[in-house]
Amino acid sequence: MKFKLLIILLLLSFVCYSQKPIKIGESIEVHSDILKEDRMLEIHLPKNYIESNKTYPVLYLLDSFFNFPHAVGTIEYLQLNRLIPEMIVVGVRNTNRNRDLSPPSPQLSKEEKERMGAKGEADNFLAFLENELIPQIEKNYKVASYRLIVGHSRGGLFNIYSFFKKPELFDAYITISPSLWYPNELISQSFEDVFKNPSELNSSFYLTLANENKGSMRGNVLKLSGEFENYINKHEETGLRFKYVHMPEEVHGTVGLPSIFNGLRFIFEPTQYEIPRTKELIIAQGGPKAVIKKAVDYFDQLSEKYGFEVTNEYTLIDLGYNFLKIEEFRKYSIDAFKANVDAHPDSYDAYSTLGMAYERLGELQNAKTNYEKALKLVKQTENPEWEFYKADLENLEKKMNSD
Hints:
Layout: H1 2-18, E1 26-32, E2 37-44, E3 56-62, H2 64-80, E4 88-92, H3 97-101, H4 110-116, H5 122-140, E5 143-152, H6 154-165, E6 172-176, H7 191-194, E7 204-209, H8 217-234, E8 241-246, H9 256-267, H10 279-284, H11 288-306, H12 313-325, H13 332-343, H14 348-360, H15 364-378, H16 386-402
Parallel strand pairs: 3-4, 3-5, 5-6, 6-7, 7-8
Antiparallel strand pairs: 1-2, 2-4
Helix pairs in contact: 2-9, 11-12, 12-13, 13-14, 14-15, 15-16
Pfam family, one: Esterase
InterPro entries: AB_hydrolase_fold, Esterase-like, Siderophore_Hydrolase_D, TPR-like_helical_dom_sf, TPR_rpt
Protein name: Alpha/beta hydrolase-fold protein
């Protein structure tokens, strides 16, 4: 009996110990004078948001009741793999989708009007975003000026309408199987009639369509895609970027996740820097020091363009490793890794890789100093692989003691 009681107590204590909620965000309620109602928001913040001094781009996610969990998971996965920057996600829950996400449309048939009920108040919702929600987010959170919006179905229709109506409000759009069966005079116009000054357009626009073939929706999506491509091809001065992807293997309900995944990769594609990997290419760019400077300058310019820090950390690490592979340039790996430490003094990987380069070049004391710094920094985080950094230091100390 005592043994059974002990087992029960142990199991209970294990359950109590192991129960720790996994949070992907928090919900808050805001009041809108424009919409004359309260609206629920779902907010996701980057992992080290509280301790960080950085500012972050903001992704405004429509239909967040359906999309918030998978969108946040996708974003965290892409960040983990260094394909996109960290960002704040603001999910906007609906109260009446037809009303808020549909533009005005006198062309709707009687049957469509009766089926949809309240509709055509996208201008009000756009005013809510521009004049109430965005200012409130920018007042209360550490945000950069770069804004993205994601809309699916009726939300995709709203994305297109907001791009035509106020193209300066968002910097990037992920528009997923938009309900372009819905008629609207503004978005039916040609780009030439709406966007008179191509140099003022600097958005990235990613558009997808699932296996929808009925009615006018597919034809109108293809027409819109053609408008984008023709406009960009005609006007070299425009900063507009566009990509259309047909996803026939997806249905309307499943197209959202792959669209967000690939859309974010497209939007932040310029942050993926291709370094010169051969001796000949490095010499062609002026040699190792010039290559390092070129990379640093590129990311400085990119950060200025996006309005937040686009990290050069992984590019400088990549450069350092590449220099180590080329006998004539091995010593320049130190320059690349030092530039990384200078740019990211709180990064344990920056010190660890610099220590590794010193070790390979035989400067063991310098290697030890940097390994110690890396271990100290990594132990302050939740990185479960901190013992690898400890092993690097211990193995180096054994080498130094054996010499």
